[in-house]
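Narrative progress, year one. The postdoctoral researcher (J.K.) led the effort to move from monomer predictions toward full complexes, under supervision of the PI. The following entry was the first complex the group processed end to end, covering 663 residues in total.
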Amino acid sequence: MTSVTRSWPWGIPWTMGSRTIERVITDTTDAVNVTEDQLVQKAQEGSPEAFERLYEMHLRRVYALSLRMLSDPNRAEEATQDIFVRAWEKIDTFQFRSAFGTWLHRLGVNVILGNLKSEKRRDDRTSPVTDELDLFVREVQEAMPETRLDLERAIAELPPRAKEILILHDIQGFRYREIAEMIGTAEGTVKSQLNRARRLVREAMSK
Amino acid sequence: MNERANNESGVKDCKIVEELLSPFYDEELNETADAFVQRHLDACQDCMAKLEEIKETVTAINELPGEATPERDLWPAIVTATAGSATPLGTADSRRWYQKPALLAAAIAALMVPGLATAGILLRSPEPAPVDQDVGFDVDVPDIEIGNLEGLAEGLAQGLNEAFARRGGDFGPAAEALIKALGDNSAEVRRTAARALSDYEDQRVVRALVDALQDSDSEVRRWAVWSLGEIEANQAIPEISQTLLEDPDDEVRRWAAWSLGQIEDPRAVLALARSLTSDSYGETRRWSAWALGQIESSQGVDALSAALTSDDVNEVRRWSAWALGQIESAQGVQALGHALLTDQHGETRRWSAWALGQIESAAGVESLSRALRTDEVIEVRRWSAWALGQIESASAVDALSAALRTDSAWVVRRWSAWALGQIESRAAEPALAEAMEDEHPEVRQWAIWALTQIRE
């Protein structure tokens, strides 16, 4: 087993993106023919290889969520790591009622919101400062070459609560009630914040 | 008067409705509110225009890509973070965990060595080894957590080495004592010494380890050959090669192959090639294939091609495909093409496709195109599409266009679109234009990208 450095203009099948990725050839015997549920089952039985495979399958979605929610590549990487560590610790509690990806994303949102909450207590910032935003935009360009940078920037510049709600609703597809539960607020707040977030994005785009 | 009242109430309604447009669009209003907004919209063009704006914004946000690639490989940090938990994913480096299953035996062996007590104390020193110190384990319990034990063995070895290093510097009394311990009566002591010597890059240590390759105890030989690999002792290649080909113990030969792959010296290629085609133990053949891929010498291609097309162990064939992709020699194309179309093992076919993409020879196009059209495994088709994009030959356009139009898996369609963009042939335009109607947004996005590439 060895790690292989590969560098292509547009990445390799599991890592579409214009960057050099150091990934590992994983040893999951005939993993190509194993379904996701079977992998989850194996991971629940304690197989690190099966979990690594699940990581490979979901890494990029989880990272996209973290990157947008936190607007900071370093924190997004840390959060992504936290999410997978938690997923490994809690994988026993997954009961196949939903798709594994849905469960993982919900867990991911909780981890990120938890991180944000503890950070807000420490540091009462309202939105990222310009340097951080530039760093974020550069990272987005690398991490998602096909995205719309103006739109990403407009979302990143939203006030924190409005941004969270917009991402959870318009990108992650959660319903108002679910979001209200996740962030511990009233449904009415979700409603008004989402309305405001969309208006601000629209205004930023038409500038 | 009446008209004025209507206007006033209309303006007031607009304000209320404006607040409700977002939830209205999201279908999150109750029936009464929904009907109210609907009625207002039927009569008010301003509000209707605002709803259109919301729709546009949300659609644009919806279409943002859902995946992003982080810059670093995050997996090692995840593994490290779980090291202290009840169910670790491995140790700080899961690859090492895999490469050194023998450490399990070492941990148990170390328990029986007098030095253990010292090592245990060392692990609790102010700078602890990266291992869960409170891990209580009992060698009699059958279901020991491998990860924990392996971590412990690493920790023990590290502790021992740190202790020796502290006492003796790089080579001094400590290394001297360890070399002497290689002659100890107890095989357990000799094993521990052979393991601990891996931290001393010194001629005398290498000579002593080479001598230990003749030890009567197979575990001592195994640790000696492992340490030589860790030290990357290229002056010991003849002896390690001899061990690879002649040692009677399967595991010693396997670790000799690993060791040669670590050293990455082309002088080992002939021995590895012979081992790959003749060793009776599958794991040794597999690691010989791996080592040949590490060394990346084209002299290994014949043996790897033979193993790829005829070995009866799946993992040997799969790693042979990987090694051929590492070497990137066009001589490997024929065997890879054959494996891609005929191997029973999905992973081997997938890695054959990958290897053909690495080699980038037009001779691979035919088999890749066929695999893209016919393989039943999605991953094989996806990698075939990727490989065709790497090769950039216009003769692949038909197969890629067909995959873009009809493949049932969207990832295959997406990679076909990407590959067509790489090839930049105008013949791909009709299929790419049709792909604008694809049900999956990523396919549509990559089709647009591909069309731009072609036009440029």
